[in-house]
Fold each of these.
Amino acid sequence: MASVESAGTISGRGAGVLDRERTIATAGFNRWLVPPAALCIHLCIGMAYGFSVFWLPLSRAIGITAPKACPDMSLWQELFTTTCDWKVASLGWMFTLFFVVLGVAAAVWGGWLERVGPRKAGFVAALCWCGGLLLGAIGIYTHQLWIMWLGSGVIGGIGLGLGYISPVSTLIKWFPDRRGMATGMAIMGFGGGAMIGAPFANLLINYFKTSTDVGVWQAFVVMAVVYFVFMTIGAFAYRVTPAGWKPEGWTPPSEKKTMISEHHVHLNNAHKTPQFWLIWWVLCLNVSAGIGVIGMASPMLQEIFAGKLIGHPELTFGQLSVEQKTVIAGIAAGFAGLLSLFNIGGRFFWATLSDTIGRKNTYYTFFILGIVLYALAPTFAAMGSKLLFVLGFGIILSMYGGGFATVPAYLADMFGTQFVGAIHGRLLTAWSTAGIIGPVVVNYIREFQLAAGVPRDQLYNTTMYILCAMLIAGIICNYLVKPVDPKWYMSEADVAKLQAANAGAATVQTGSFGIGTGGLDVKAALFWLFVCVPLAWGVYKTLESAVKIL
């Protein structure tokens, strides 16, 4: 025990407070402190999903009570105007920036993250995400859309990418016995960030708004400060495993029975294997189907059920009055919130289940159950059953979230744990691609159907069947995933050398070292409480609005 502690002390001499050497766990450390550290970061960057709460007030930032519109203004002119209000559609490009930059940043800097460790990456993520919010606030204050895009969209998007993948490799190494559950706990936070952030942003906007200001730039500043504190706490709470550590009493499962590899594939070789690209398509197709539904959840419920939502089943969407449309819009917002709850719960549930049934079987479940539910959606709509419709799409969104949370464990099973964070970063380009494919499929087919005179309550039928076809393609890709060819495995000597280098030249040992043992002690319980209180508040606010649906 003493030799491990002294090795950690020697390796930490001269290292900066953010360096990997300063984050190697020593005797007595409880591994259950790592998931709430990851949640501190993911709950903050997850607000990217809730940014739409800013669009309406920003669309009247100049007009205050109503948008000061300039109909003939091009998007290029909109980037620089100080006299006309921004269109909601132009503000909505922020989502594209977020998820495209997230994927690119995760792919580009994933290897760097593996070298420097999660603390430095998490702190840089905090600087980018929160600095991006501050720059976005300047863009709003000066009414320069390009500054807001650059700040919140590009710089903030880099923070999203680094923050999203910062805990993945660390958690998988701390929980080799429960890989799915560990990543599910952390990535659950990204889905939950909007549940906390959106109502929090609303509170701030209402507090700061005046007769001459919509109160958004001030909300950006406050959120940047609060998020920076939380993300910094998370980054500094990260600890990495000593080289060769494993849970006490745990033995790796049989590779032949589980498809869980005991070997490691180098980052430079992972993308050369067919397994990487098959899993890339598995994630892309699963996410494309779900992300399109997320973007259209509110209008879909309104157009399909229309008067049924307010006790007037005879009224179609076009027959509703302006007041009635306002009422059902509020109900549909509750639907969107309820879907976010399923999204979050699914990230933990499905990822944890994958530890029992395997990653491949988990994705088979996503695709087969998804096909059934998408195919039945038009039937649920024709029956007028809100309960079945909402439940069906809730399960679909749980599998959307579950796909994100399960894929890091799937990659670790295939490629080993040594470079799993960086490999996961590169795989997230599938998310960037899905962020374009999904909304395009749903939105453009809807517009085509609308132009063809299809009734609004049947606008999405064709879309559902196309999404079924995408999931069938996903089944095929998942079926083709086999164990990696041994020619791509790193030698044991290369792995040991790399682990020793990452550990600051400490001796590579095996065993538990008295680290990571035990359950939820007082310190870990308090840290969990620290992150779960705001999450519980977000769940309460979501249920408060979602209950109006039924």
Amino acid sequence: MTNAILLMGSPRGRKSSSNAICLFLQELFEKNGIESQEPFFLRNHVTTEEKMNDMLVTLEQFDIIVLVAPLYDDTSPAIVVKAMEAVSRNSSKYVNKRFFPIINCGLPEPFHITEVAIPIYHKFATTVGLQWVGSLALGAGEGLQGKDGKLLNDTGGFGEKVMKSLERAVESFVTNSEFGDEALEIFSLKIFYNRIMRKFMVWTNNRGWRKMAQKNGGDVAARPYSQ
């Protein structure tokens, strides 16, 4: 029986869009006869050398490796980078395993993912010898509301596009075919390019950054290099 592992690459843990995607995929795997287990949280397995080695042994046991992670500064979170570096050092053990990254970002345009992050993951797969079966780039991943603990089934129309793409991805795993590289806009970009909406989004984000800075003792008005 074909088996797959879901690598959950978000530092946020269970309350993240990445985990919401993983949980939906886990259900799809079970429905389609693909053996799997609960999402494998990378943040719990890259803290020590011993845990890293356990992760590498675990990965050897699966035919399909699905990485679900957010986009941080146009590339991978540190925990994902550490995992990729460890796998690269032991590349001979993972040759020909199928690899499929699913990356989401807060910005609505998926090109923020496809321009830099996806090529990096493709280079990683080529270096290790993994079989690249495609990728899925999700713009406006924050709209899935995983940080609020919601599942994809709870997000209504926002999650519908994503669920359909994930269903097709799993179908490609079952038929052993390539999914291809897909970039998906969860929201219509016309909404974000509206002048009033742009101002609202800027105001909302600035307010959020100020609250976060205040909570953590920072000062957003500081200008340490102005003199």
